[in-house]
Write a structure and sequence with these properties.
mainly beta, elongated
């Protein structure tokens, strides 16, 4: 089944499972988007887990819950699998920017939760949706949407998308996202596509937390792409994430 919603074998063994955003918001005294400016004690990915306690100075870019100054002191408790660092550390366990879930701790704040700093690309949109009273996850495409895209599309393809670095519209700690990409076909479901194709993202609806965009990564992202070529510029019609569309839902004939 070609859908990113299918759990991978490694997901069950993840030492830092994501807690529901609603639970994190309910328990937090302060939730901010920010980045680590300095940290003590220095830790790197080669040191054994669980990690030592740390204290960091964090610059606050946006407050999602609570009130605070633009610079705060944050402690990371001992015994976690993640650690705080700067942007040069590329380890999965290294946290330097993102959504900080915090509890008051004397004159500063302490991180809590399995990940402490939510730094994946979907973190901020998920918090924004829950704060607006909406589901944490973006609803899947409806049958009507899929049928409409299939009818409009000249080409439907299961492909790997690699975003273009010169059209980045969203930057996150782990991945940047672009409005244009190169699609490399894996299986063509409608029309023809014999070679990689340059595409752009079609108009997206106004929605809390945004919709989706093409990841600017070497590995790219596989998904189902509905493409309209009538304007001369191949345009992806999807308004929900292509990786979450199951091939079995596409109308045949």
């Amino acid at each position: 089944m070609r859908t990113s919603s299918t759990p991978s074998p490694t997901a069950a063994a993840d030492p830092n499972p994501q807690e529901p955003v609603a639970e994190l918001l309910a328990e937090a005294d302060l939730v901010v988007v920010g980045k680590v400016d300095s940290v003590d004690v220095a830790i790197d990915a080669d040191q054994p887990r669980p990690r030592q306690a740390q204290t960091a100075t964090v610059t606050v870019d946006q407050v999602l819950k609570g009130e605070t100054a633009t610079t705060i002191t944050v402690t990371k408790p001992a015994g976690t699998w993640y650690f705080l660092t700067d942007a040069t550390e590329k380890s999965y366990d290294a946290k330097w920017a993102g959504v900080f879930t915090l509890r008051k701790n004397g004159t500063g704040y302490e991180l809590f939760g399995n990940t402490g700093v939510q730094d994946d690309a979907g973190a901020l949109p998920a918090f924004q949706r829950v704060l607006a009273g909406r589901p944490e996850r973006v609803p899947a495409a409806t049958e009507a949407q899929v049928k409409d895209w299939a009818a409009q599309a000249d080409t439907i393809v299961f492909a790997t998308a690699r975003g273009a670095s010169d059209h980045v519209t969203l930057r996150t700690p782990r991945t940047d996202f672009s409005t244009s990409a190169t699609l490399t076909p894996i299986e063509v479901l409608k029309g023809t596509m014999a070679a990689p194709m340059q595409v752009v993202q079609g108009p997206q609806p106004e929605t809390v937390g945004g919709t989706w965009a093409f990841p600017v990564t070497e590995s790219g992202e596989d998904g189902i792409y509905f493409i309209d070529t009538s304007s001369g510029t191949p345009t992806v019609l999807n308004t929900t994430r292509p990786s979450q569309i199951n091939e079995n839902r596409i109308p045949r004939g």
